[in-house]
Structures are given as C-alpha cells and as structure tokens.
Amino acid sequence: EFFPGFDHDEPDRRSYLSVARAEREGDMMRWTDYHYDGVARGIAGYSKPASLLAALRGLLGEETFLRAYRGYIATWAYRNPKPWDFFNAVEREAGQDLDWFWRSWYYETWLLDQSITSVSSTVDGTRIVVEDRGNVPMPVRLAITLESGEMLRREIGVETWLAGARTAEVMIPSGSSVTQVEIDPEHFFPDADRSNNGWRRRT
Fold first, then answer.
1. Residue 23 DSSP code
2. Disulfide engineering: 68 pairs with which of 10, 34, 62, 90, CB 3.0-4.6 Å?
3. Are 161 and 132 in contact (CB under 8 A)?
C-alpha cells in the first residue's frame, strides 16, 4: 500500500533468473549442505521459492492460492511438515493434479521460455503461433489487442506441452485485425527471456 504500482515479486524473480540463465543454480529439493556453492544455496532457499509461490498464485488465482496457503499453515502450525505436505495441501484445495508443476520447478533446474513465433493474417482471421522453447511446461496466457481497441484473452493449456508439443496456434476470427499480442502481461511466471513475449504490428 505504501508503494502502489510496484511489483514486489520482481526483485526475487530477477535474482533467480540471473543465476538460472548463468546455469549456476541447483535443484531446490536438495539438502542445503549439499548445494554446489553459496549462490546456488541462496537462490534455492530464497529467490526461487519466492518466485514460484508468486507463479503458483498467478496459476491458481488469488482466492484459491490464499485459501490453500492459509489452510496449509493452519494444518501444520507447530508441526514439522515436509515439502510434499505443502504440495498435497495445495492440490487438495485447488482440486487438480499439479505434479507437473512441482517436478518442473522444484526437482529440476529447467527454464521457462515461451515465445511468440509469428502472427499472420489468413482468410479465416489471424493465426498466432506460440513456441515452448524451455523445458518447464506452463499455460500460455495471451493478451490480444484488436484494432478496434478490444482486448481478448486466450490461454493455451499446459496439457499441450505435457503431450509433447513444442508449438501451438491460436486463431482469432476475421473481423478486427490484431495489433498487439503479449504473453503473460501480468508477469506472473518467471520467463527466462521476455524479449520474445510480445508482438506489435508495424504501422
């Protein structure tokens, strides 16, 4: 409230990604004593888990996330939970299997890198092609601006990537042409290269 408009998750996300891009991180599900060095230990203990909680909140929505998080804290207060106790608590509240999320982010050092490959006009409308360039599967949330000023939201489900696809298409029917496309405009997810997350029509 004291800093309106400030993205409080950005410093942690930036810190985590700088180390991840340099291939210096270690997986989070490792005893702290066995991390490769102090940088890997610090990222696995602080910046990355903070970034992943923010990503999980963006994935599930504020209401579901807070209900799961507060429920977990209430259930395990003054006890000794393990990581999978947290995983199970979130899945119960969310009502969905999130094994792909825990495996990709917590057990591996994979990167998320979603990219807009092309935006082209066809007889049927506008075809938007998105590529999954990293190894972390996450939904693709698209904000699409039309020439009329209308904003459309489309999502490519994580199931697309889990099935092995590396590219996916979104079609916008004919009517008003597309002027701008952006992946994850809220910056919920820690994408390793946001330079390819946007497209703007040349005037």
1. T
2. 90
3. yes
From 198, 192, 140, select the one nearest 169 (Cα to Cα): 140
The predicted-structure confidence for 47-103, as pLDDT tens digits, reads as follows 999 999 999 999 999 999 999 999 999 999 999 999 999 999 999 999 999 999 999
Q: Rounded to an integer, what distance in angstroms lies between the CA atom of residue 38 and that of residue 163?
A: 37
132's tokens: 């999954």
User: Is 190:112 a contact under the CB 8 Å cutoff?
Assistant: yes
Task: Report which residue type is found at 143.
Answer: A
Instruction: Report pLDDT digits (tens) over 126-167.
Output: 999 999 999 999 999 999 999 999 999 999 999 999 999 999
Paired tokens of 31: 């005893």
Q: Report which secondary-structure segment, H or E, holds 119.
A: strand 114-122
Helix H or strand E encompassing 129:
strand 125-132
Closest CA to 29 of 82, 68, 94: 82
Rg of the chain, C-alpha, whole Å: 19
Residues with Cβ < 8 Å from 113, sequence gap 6 or more? Answer: 132, 133, 134, 191, 192, 193, 196
Tell me, what DSSP letter sits at residue 34?
G
Locus of tokens 């079609």: 171
